[in-house]
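Shipment paperwork, digital attachment
Item: protein structure file
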Amino acid sequence: MRRKRLFIWVEGHDDILFFNKIIRPIFRRRYDVVEVRQYAQMKKHKLEKLLLSLEELQADCLVVADIDFHPCVTSKKQYLSYRFPSVPPEKFVVVIQEIESWYLAGLTANRSKTLGVAPVRSTNQITKEIFIELKPRNHTKLGFMLEILKRYSIHTATQRNGSFKYFMNKHLLWSKDDHVTAG
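Attachment content:
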């Protein structure tokens, strides 16, 4: 029997950390193998070759990218279609604004206070720069991210970030039992 495999391609290290800790365990309910890999530093030709080999293995894939300077999701997906011609557009995941917004989205008001951060109602406009401004002075960026992941509430994140909610609903990933990730 063939094993069901999923490869999630993300931009950077912060994305790898987030997807391995929060998203991968949920996808493991549906896939035998879930791998999170970084594509930002790869040459287009090498990446395209890898993606085509995954297609031959009949593995699923998702490509995750921040919206960056694009005015809308459609524009970003058009750009991604150029960069990843073998990947169907429905396999693109656009994070608004940047992955840091998905981190902050998962902090409940009480957990924000525990970390010394003012609660944020909506993280749809959070960028790396805003995230760093909000981070407590006694934490490095990585340390702050790790503390958030220990306290992460998927339920809260779906209420505070529209692109996270869209992602979770589109991929049918969450249930009411997913309030906080474990391990």
